[in-house]
C-alpha cells in the first residue's frame, strides 16, 4: 500500500513553497509571511512556470497593479472608511465633549490614499499559537531597539517581559503592537516605512467603526480599544504628520467616554472629567489619552476634546503615584494639570465666558513654584543634569503659557522674556543628538511663540527639529517649526509683540486641522 501524499497548495507564494508551508494565498503578500516577518516573494513564479491551473478558471491570473495593492480586508468591508464615520458620541455623552457647535471631522486623506497601496495586517484571531508567538517575538525584538531612547527615565522593570506580557494580553493589543513593531523596524532599517500607513487606516476603522448597538460595559475591552486607537494615532504622528495623528486621536472620544462611565471618580459630574482621577495609574489608557488631548490642545490652539475639572489634588499628584507618564513623557503631572487648566480658561476667555481672577493666577503660580523634582543619585551626572534641565523647561513653559493663554498678555510682558531666556539656556544644556533632546519640543514651542531675540529662536528651532520620525514623543515637533517661522517672519518680525492668538493664527495658516 502506498504512503498517502501530503497535498500542499500549488498556487501559494514562493516563500511558503520554499519553506514547505501551507500558504493562505492572500495577495499581494500572504498573511503567513507577514505574521512571521518573512519576505513574501509573491506569486510571479506561477506565471513564469506556466502552472496549468492558472488559465483554467482565472483564479490565479495576475491582478492589475491598481487592484493588487488593495488590501483584501478592504474589499467588501462592513466597516466604514475613516472618512465616512460619524463620530458623534452617544447623546448621554454630549455635555462632556467640546464640539464648539460642530461635529468632529476626519482629516485622514493621507491614510485613505495610502491604505489603497499597502498590504493587509495578519488577522490574529486566525493565527495558530506558533504564528502568534512569532508576532510576539517580533514585537519584543523591535521595541527593545528603542527601549533606551523612548522613555524620559529608564524603566524600573524588565522591559522585554513587560512587552511580551502586554502583547499576549489580547488579540487587539497584539495586532496594534505588531503594527508598531513593523513601523519601528522599517524606520530604523530605512525600508519604506510608508508602506505601513495603510495598516494604520485599515485597523483604525475596524476599531472605531465597530460600534455596538448598546454602550459597551466591559472595562478591559474598552481599555484595549482606547489604547489601540491612541497607539495608531501615535504611529501616524511618526509616519505622516501631526494633523493626521490628531484626527485619529479625536475619534477615540466616544470610547474614552464609555470607559470613563465605568469609573465614578473620573466622571466627576454631568459635564466634566476629573483630570486628577483620569490620570490614575490604574488605567494608563485614560491617562495617555488625557495627556495627548491636553498637549494637542496647546500645540494646535484648539479646544480640548473633553471638559476637564482641573482641580489640583496635591496629595494625588505625587511622583510615586503618577510616575508612569512622567517616566515616559517627561512632563510632571502637576504641570500637565495646569496646562489643561490654561487650555480651558483660554477657550472660555475667547468665548466671553469669563476671565481668570488675580487669585486664580496666583494659585497657579504657587503650584508651579512649589513643585520640586525628584533627584536620582544613581544616574550619571550628565543624564541627571539633562533631565533636570528638561523638567525646569516644563516649569518655565507652563508659566509662559499661563500668562499668554490664560491672561492674554503679549510677549513684551515683563514676566515673559526672563522665562523665555531661561528655557533657551536650559535647552542648550541638553546635548544635541541625545534621545532626551526630543522631550524639549513643547517647552521650546511655547517659549518660541514668545521669543523676541534671534539667538533664542535659533535654539528653539533646532531643538524642535529633533522631534520627528522615531524621535516623536507627544506630537511630531518638527511639524511646528514652520508655524514658528511663519510667526517670526510675520506678526513677530524683528521682535514685535505678539499674543498667543497670533501663534494660533500662524498655526492655522501653516498646519491646518479640521474642526
Write the layout of secondary structure elements.
Layout: H1 14-19, H2 31-35, H3 44-49, H4 65-68, H5 109-115, H6 129-145, H7 159-167, H8 171-189, H9 197-209, H10 219-239, H11 242-250, H12 253-260, E1 273-274, H13 275-278, H14 284-300, E2 308-309, H15 323-329, H16 333-350, H17 358-370, H18 381-406, H19 416-428, H20 441-450, H21 454-464, H22 481-488, H23 500-510
* Strand arrangement across the biggest beta sheet: 1-2
What is the overall number of helices? 23
| Average residue pLDDT | 78
In terms of DSSP E residues, the strand content is: under 5%
Structural class: mainly alpha
Task: Give a structural overview.
This protein is an all-alpha fold. The protein has a domain at 14-68. It is built from 23 helices and two strands. Helix 5 (109-115) crosses helix 9 (197-209) and helix 20 (441-450) packs antiparallel against helix 21 (454-464). It is globular and about 75 Å long. The N and C termini lie far apart (74 Å).
Amino acid at each position: 500500500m502506498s504512503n498517502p501524499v501530503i497535498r500542499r497548495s500549488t498556487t501559494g507564494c514562493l516563500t511558503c513553497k520554499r519553506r514547505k508551508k501551507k500558504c493562505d494565498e492572500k495577495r499581494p503578500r500572504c498573511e503567513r509571511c507577514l505574521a512571521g516577518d518573512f519576505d513574501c516573494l509573491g506569486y510571479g513564479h506561477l506565471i513564469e512556470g506556466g502552472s496549468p491551473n492558472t488559465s483554467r478558471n482565472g483564479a490565479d491570473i495576475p491582478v492589475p497593479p491598481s487592484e493588487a495593492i488593495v488590501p483584501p480586508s478592504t474589499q467588501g468591508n462592513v466597516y466604514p472608511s475613516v472618512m465616512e464615520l460619524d463620530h458623534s458620541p452617544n447623546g448621554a455623552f454630549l455635555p462632556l465633549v467640546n464640539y464648539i457647535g460642530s461635529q468632529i471631522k476626519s482629516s485622514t486623506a493621507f491614510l485613505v490614499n495610502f491604505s489603497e497601496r499597502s498590504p493587509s495586517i495578519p488577522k490574529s484571531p486566525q493565527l495558530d499559537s506558533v504564528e502568534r508567538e512569532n508576532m510576539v517575538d517580533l514585537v519584543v525584538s523591535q521595541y527593545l531597539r528603542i527601549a533606551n531612547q523612548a522613555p524620559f527615565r529608564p524603566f524600573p522593570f524588565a522591559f522585554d517581559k513587560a512587552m511580551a506580557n502586554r502583547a499576549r494580553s489580547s488579540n487587539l493589543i497584539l495586532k496594534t503592537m505588531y503594527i508598531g513593531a513593523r513601523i519601528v523596524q522599517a524606520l530604523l532599517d530605512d525600508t519604506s516605512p510608508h508602506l505601513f500607513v495603510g495598516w494604520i487606516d485599515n485597523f483604525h476603522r475596524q476599531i472605531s467603526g465597530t460600534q455596538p448597538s448598546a454602550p459597551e460595559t466591559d472595562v478591559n475591552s474598552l481599555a484595549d480599544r482606547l489604547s489601540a486607537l491612541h497607539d495608531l494615532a501615535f504611529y501616524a504622528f511618526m509616519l505622516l504628520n501631526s494633523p493626521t495623528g490628531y484626527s485619529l486621536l479625536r475619534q477615540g472620544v466616544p470610547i474614552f467616554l464609555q470607559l470613563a462611565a465605568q469609573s465614578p471618580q473620573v466622571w466627576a459630574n454631568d459635564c466634566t472629567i476629573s483630570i486628577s482621577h483620569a490620570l490614575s495609574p490604574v488605567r494608563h489608557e485614560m491617562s495617555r489619552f488625557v495627556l495627548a488631548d491636553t498637549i494637542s490642545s496647546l500645540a494646535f490652539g484648539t479646544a480640548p476634546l473633553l471638559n476637564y475639572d482641573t482641580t489640583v489634588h496635591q496629595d494625588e499628584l505625587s511622583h510615586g503615584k503618577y510616575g508612569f507618564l512622567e517616566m515616559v513623557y517627561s512632563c510632571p503631572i502637576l504641570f500637565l494639570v495646569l496646562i489643561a487648566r490654561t487650555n480651558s480658561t483660554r477657550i472660555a476667555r475667547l468665548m466671553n465666558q469669563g476671565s481668570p481672577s488675580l487669585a486664580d493666577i496666583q494659585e497657579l503660580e504657587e503650584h508651579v513654584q512649589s513643585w520640586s523634582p525628584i533627584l536620582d543619585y544613581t544616574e550619571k551626572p550628565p543624564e541627571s543634569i539633562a533631565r533636570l534641565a528638561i523638567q525646569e523647561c516644563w516649569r518655565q513653559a507652563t508659566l509662559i503659557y499661563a500668562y499668554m493663554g490664560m491672561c492674554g498678555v503679549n510677549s513684551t510682558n515683563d514676566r515673559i522674556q526672563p522665562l523665555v531666556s531661561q528655557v533657551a539656556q536650559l535647552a542648550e544644556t541638553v546635548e544635541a543628538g541625545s534621545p532626551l533632546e526630543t522631550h524639549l519640543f513643547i517647552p521650546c514651542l511655547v517659549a518660541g511663540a514668545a521669543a523676541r531675540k534671534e539667538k533664542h529662536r535659533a535654539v528653539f528651532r533646532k531643538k524642535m527639529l529633533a522631534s520627528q520620525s522615531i524621535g516623536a514623543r507627544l506630537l511630531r515637533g518638527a511639524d511646528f517649526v514652520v508655524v514658528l517661522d511663519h510667526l517670526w517672519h510675520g506678526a513677530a518680525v524683528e521682535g514685535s509683540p505678539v499674543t498667543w492668538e497670533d501663534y494660533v493664527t500662524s498655526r492655522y495658516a501653516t498646519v491646518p486641522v479640521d474642526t
